[in-house]
Amino acid sequence: MNVYIETYGCQMNVSDSGIVGKILTDNGFTLINRIEEANVILINTCSIRDNAEKKVKNRITELNALKRKNKIVIGILGCMAERLKEDLIENYGVDIVCGVDSYRKITDLIMDVNNPNYKKVVNDYFSSSQIHSIETYDDITPIQMDSNGVTAFVSIMRGCENFCSYCVVPYTRGKERSRNRNNIIKECEYLFENGYREITLLGQNVNSYNYNDTDFADLISKVAAINPLLRVRFATSHPKDISDKLILTIASYKNICKAIHLPVQSGSNAVLKRMNRKYTREQYMEKINKIKTSIPNCGLSTDIIVGFCGETQTDFEDTLCIMREVKYDYAFMFAYSERSDTFASKKYIDDISPLEKNERLTKVINLQRELSLTSNKNDIGKEFEVLIEGVSKRSPDKLFGRNTQNKVIIFDNKGLNKGEYVKIKVTDCTSATLIGEVTV
Ligand code: 5AD
Ligand code: SF4
């Protein structure tokens, strides 16, 4: 049977699709890239904002039209499977719903889809029943989906217990569970032996990693020690748990990339408190300053939400102000989207109008564009070591890769290959990309 997997949302979902892919191929299914040839279409979904769910619902409607022509099975995986459960079968006409902790049952679900006596929905929350219990997919080495053969994702922990008041993740992904350290190292070694040169360690909260007294700083040093040619990155960190030990570890390994994604969400203490972020603006800035002094030229990126419940004009300006103060290289920016069942949806009023949210969003996007451009202009004339990831999509005669700070650099293709490291001198830039030339 041919299975096509379509993935929405975060990198964790991409990694999870790889787990599903591995389970399916081990059981005799074939993964395919052309949806037209599929017998089964699985959609791995995201619930983080309403527009993410809307996108998938529209996609299901499109696929249902395809289903009327061909005999196909449609299955929903991921966060929407956890949140909407039976509703997806009853009101959206899908055939299978499989929650994030139930992927080991995916083959049975597909095989039994026409049997009226079998369940169509499985949402076993089995591995989240204990704190730091064994990770559900600990022993599975996922397929690297849509891979360029150079950069890979390795999931190291799942779940989140921070309960930021706006966020649905603790409800869809359950409690924090860390993977066995040895399985992670084995997977990273295997990837390196198979030509991968960069690994991003993934988790909703990588800094909460804890397995038999191995913490995240210990784990990342072990991965970095596999080979100096293997770069290591990680995502995502909660500012409250980025430790001095981790900062020192990043500084002391050349192959741990000098780039930290540290979601701030808001620059206003009042908003941070309502968001239940568990830090103040001052505490956040203390972490940033520590990073800046301990890791010179560290790339810094963030997530920002505008228009959260009760966000005044002054609160919003505090966000613009902290962006200017940190001078982020990059930011993911969002308008607040109320999610049912979260603390914020029960306790606070979603009182900023969609129009105002959009205006604020445009302002932060424009400011970030300026900050990114300034940061990129500062790099003109500098030389960076770049790991080549492949041919540039926009200009096929050029290659692209990233420097340790996670900035994309485009340069002339001089017969080099992906997976190679090359020294590039930056000659020009846009707000999104550096442009350079090979120096050695
Ligand atoms: N509305 C808008 N953005 C959200 N995020 C999480 N929940 C919401 C929400 N309800 C953003 C946060 C988080 C990122 C992954 O998504 O910025 O860091
Ligand atoms: Fe959501 Fe906060 Fe957990 Fe991130 S840390 S997944 S924003 S609850």
Fold topology:
Layout: E1 2-7, H1 11-26, E2 30-31, E3 40-45, H2 50-69, E4 73-78, H3 79-84, H4 86-92, E5 96-98, H5 106-111, E6 121-122, E7 151-155, E8 157-158, H6 169-173, E9 177-178, H7 181-193, E10 198-202, E11 210-211, E12 214-215, H8 216-224, E13 231-235, H9 244-252, E14 259-261, H10 269-274, H11 281-294, E15 299-306, H12 313-326, E16 330-335, H13 343-347, H14 354-378, E17 383-391, E18 398-402, E19 408-412, E20 421-429, E21 434-438
Parallel strand pairs: 1-2, 1-3, 3-4, 4-5, 5-6, 7-10, 10-13, 14-15, 15-16, 19-21
Antiparallel strand pairs: 8-9, 11-12, 17-18, 17-20, 18-19, 20-21
Helix pairs in contact: 8-9, 12-14
The structure holds 5'-deoxyadenosine and iron/sulfur cluster.
Iron/sulfur cluster binds at residues 160, 162-164, 167, 169-170, 204-205, 238.
Short description:
With 440 residues, this protein is an alpha/beta fold.
How would you describe what is shown here?
The structure is a single chain. By secondary structure, the protein is α/β, with parallel strands linked by helices. It has four domains: 2-123, 3-Layer(aba) Sandwich (Rossmann fold), CATH 3.40.50.12160; 134-257, 2-Layer Sandwich (Transcription Regulator spoIIAA), CATH 3.30.750; 259-375, Transcription Regulator spoIIAA (2-Layer Sandwich), CATH 3.30.750.200; 383-438, Beta Barrel (OB fold (Dihydrolipoamide Acetyltransferase, E2P)). It contains 14 helices and 21 strands. It has helices spanning 11-26, 50-69, 79-84, 86-92, 106-111, 169-173, 181-193, 216-224, 244-252, 269-274, 281-294, 313-326, 343-347, 354-378, and strands spanning 2-7, 30-31, 40-45, 73-78, 96-98, 121-122, 151-155, 157-158, 177-178, 198-202, 210-211, 214-215, 231-235, 259-261, 299-306, 330-335, 383-391, 398-402, 408-412, 421-429, 434-438. The strands form six sheets. A six-stranded parallel beta sheet has the order 2-1-3-4-5-6, sandwiched between helices. Strand 5 (96-98), helix 5 and strand 6 (121-122) form a beta-alpha-beta unit. The longest helix is centred in the last third of the chain and has 25 residues, at 354-378. The chain is globular, with a radius of gyration of 22 Å. The structure holds 5'-deoxyadenosine (5AD) and iron/sulfur cluster.
